[in-house]
Design a protein that fits this description.
alpha/beta; 18 strands; 168 residues
Length: 168
């Protein structure tokens, strides 16, 4: 065995990444945290959350910890238990599966994302949208619409009551 075979490849892990991984783990796995506090933890780890004090993030929600800065969440958004949001993806058009690319996941304000939903593409979810439980999001969701399924399909539009300015 020569000297080159004995070398151990050391990965460089910056202190910020170590901090981020620890915070992601605590925010995701601690069942006693309030949703607003969990949102604040995710924000401190790099996810762009507009107002964590009015955003709810449920237990076991997993934000992509490779590029958390590519994920943004608007205010008054509710992300329920078990949701997974990715911001890096593999390009399936190449043979070797090593072609990874990064995209932005933008979640608007007043959005509801149902339990165990998975976001697997760079997408924009418009303001006021509702995503049903166990959905797989692979394309952009227009504002004030309801989507669900695997892959998610359009169900119906939400209507705004002009008299009371409430969404129905």
């Amino acid at each position: 065995m020569n000297e080159n075979d004995k070398q151990i490849v050391k990965r460089k892990y910056p202190l910020k990444r170590i901090y981020s991984k620890i915070v992601f783990y605590i925010a995701r796995k601690c069942p006693f945290l309030r949703g607003e506090f969990r949102a604040s933890l995710f924000k401190s780890a790099g996810v762009k959350i507009e107002k964590p004090s009015v955003t709810f993030i449920g237990f076991d929600v997993a934000f992509d910890d490779i590029c958390p800065e590519n994920i943004s969440v608007g205010q008054k958004t509710m992300i329920t238990e078990g949701v997974k949001i990715l911001s890096h993806f593999i390009d399936v058009n190449h043979d070797d599966l090593e072609h990874m690319y990064f995209g932005k996941v933008e979640i608007g304000s007043n959005v509801f994302i149902g339990m165990n939903t998975v976001i697997v593409r760079p997408v924009t979810i418009g303001n006021g949208a509702i995503i049903g439980a166990n959905s797989v999001i692979t394309k952009d969701i227009p504002p004030y619409t309801i989507w669900g399924g695997n892959p998610a399909k359009f169900i119906k539009n939400r209507e705004i009551n002009q008299d009371s300015n409430k969404i129905e």
